[in-house]
């Protein structure tokens, strides 16, 4: 008996991650056709173009004209894309404090510690080059 099930359909986020991954593996800017070949599995060229265009709108890729088409270059990785989605969701909420508070209280202890460490590092980086009051008085 033969299996007539259709192949599993990939979600938009999964396709975006796969396209970004393929672009990062390229030796330089890549065409949509190259990405399509790299991903294979019957993925339509128009689908690749749609995903690349969405990534362009999210500033995760850039494109340059090359002849009659474009070549694409990644500027963001999967973590950057996820961070963009998180910022977009946060920007859509009127009570940012409540959203952030809810997010932080829902983290497991290890993730909460990691977030605190990262915030501490970011704070330390913003202090570089700044004088303290005591240093200005001397």
Describe this structure in words.
The structure is a single chain. Helix content is 60%, strand content 10%. The protein is mainly α and 138 residues long. The protein has a 3-stranded antiparallel beta sheet. Helix 2 packs across helix 3 (45-57).
- Secondary-structure-derived class: mainly alpha
Q: Helicity, in percent?
A: 55-70%
| Through-space gap between termini | 87 Å
Q: State the strand order across the main sheet.
A: 1-3-2
Q: Enumerate how many helices there are, as a single number.
A: 7
Number of strands: 3
Flag low-confidence runs.
132-138
Strand content: 5-15%
The gyration radius over C-alpha positions equals 21 Å
Largest sheet: 3 strands, antiparallel
- Output the helix-strand order: HEHHEEHHHH
The whole-number mean of residue pLDDT values reads 83
The outline comes out as: elongated
Outline the fold blueprint.
Elements: H1 12-25, E1 30-31, H2 32-39, H3 45-57, E2 61-66, E3 69-74, H4 78-91, H5 96-106, H6 109-127, H7 133-136
Antiparallel strand pairs: 1-3, 2-3
Helix pairs in contact: 1-3, 2-3
